[in-house]
Amino acid sequence: MEIPEISEQQYNSLKIICIAGAYSQIVPDEERDDPKTFEGYTRGTEDTAQLVKLGFVEEITAQCSDVLDRVFLADGRRFRVYALTPLGRVMFNEADKRIVQ
Hints:
3-stranded antiparallel β-sheet, about 15% strand, alpha+beta
């Protein structure tokens, strides 16, 4: 059985999410984004997909559809929204707490 790993970037993202509890992520748009930006957004979505697969975050886009629809009408940009799961909270919110004895 292979032990799953996360990258340093994924770990750092999770630490930030622990503070906010949720985050929005731009959906890459090949027609709108320049190649370098598109590649960065795509890499970010791949990282997030791995965190979802591992159960640390979950997609909650549908729960935010009213706000996201208004953003799309104003800006033409799509977003996905993710929240920390209980597993992610336990694994990463507690990671930096130190026990003093």
